[in-house]
Fold:
Amino acid sequence: MCGILGIIGKDNVIEELVTGLLTIQHRGQDAAGAITYNRRFNLKRGLGLIQNVFNKKNMARLQGSSGLGHVRYPTIGTYEVTEAQPFYVNTPFGIALAHNGNVINYRELKKELEKKEFRYINTKCDAELILNTLAAQLSHFGKFTVDNLFNAVDKTFDAIRGSYSVISIIGEKGFLAFRDPHGIKPLIYGRKESSYAFASESVALNVLGYDVIDDIAPGEVVFIDRDKNVHRKKLRKTTHTPCIFEWIYFARPDSIIDGISVYEARFRLGKRLAEDVRKRNIRPDVVIPIPDTSRAAALALADELGVSYREGLIKNRYIGRTFIMATQTQRMSAVKKKLNPIKSVIDNKKVLLVDDSIVRGNTSKEIVNLIRETGAREIYFASYSPPLRHPCLYGIDMQMKKEFVAKEKPIDKIKETIGCDELIYQTMDGLLSSLQLECKKEFRYFCTACFDGNYPTKVDEKVFKEIEEDRIESKSIIK
Structure:
């Protein structure tokens, strides 16, 4: 998971880019970057948060009326500035590119590019791989036309397997955006006067004052030329399977992803979860969200049960999202620094904690211990998503089978592992029906591979092994 933002306007766009990136900082905390174009590419990348990477001095040189921005949460590659996006190549035309997703045939495609196209990939970041694949295809078509560009993207679809939402600047030609044939990662765009903006989440457009035009459809390409003419074409017709974790965890609650409000989806997930709590005859004194993602679900659950909703865990705003931190040691340390309990809310109470999911179980265990030490009489733990059991291959740091506490353990054993008195999971039916309620056009499908193992793209068994090997290598580098 990463965050991308692209703008093509009439004036310098860097200030809008940085402001917009701040709104999607939650999608990546490891590194950030931006590239602008004014007959040459101007690039700045760095490790850390937006505020650590950009300052007045480097923003002053990032001149240009079009630009790309990126916040990084690495699932492939290393934790070095050379792996940060965006990337660019000089030929053909000069192309800059950023993306959100994960290319699962990375090794195979890298070898092919080096052998057949004599394009050598210098990093392990798959954005560089997508960029060179697109550049190679454009070179084959020679003369630049919109039709040739769309054909080059179509050939890129043929070559790449996985998830990818892409934004790109092509020298003096214009601005390009496309989304993988299954639309796994989000991408939306809007307009403000004569400017256009493309982003991972609608909240970035809202903050910058852009009116939303549409989501980029799966398998669709959009090109805006230098005269601001918009060219759109749907190149592939496949089942749209967006990542369901966008609504569970990743996206901001004030975003709308593929027409579905993140806040409303989480609210309904909590409401549905209350049915299971009631069936288990669990009667808490207080419902407490584990901030921040679970607030809407916890509020709905408390309303349905007729139980007090309280903020019993106060979050330190200067500690990032623990799930997307690089190592388990970092995550465990951050939990103690990040959350502080309110004793008057918890002491001698039967507490129902609500969280978005349980992955490894270690963070949940730390939180349960914290609540118990604060004096809770009983602790019930509710996840508003089902048990996670399968690796994600599409850009979430859940890529190793051994990481999942629910992979081989039954619910009772998971309950013992995290140390709660009762454990309640959302059902798959509850998860899917909660999101379907807002779909006004037709029945919607989602990528639920991390829950049920049904991957929307073709996946060879060797891919699991390769991704695990790459992830183990990356983690060993930062220890």
The chain has a mean pLDDT of 92. The chain has 17 helices and 22 strands.
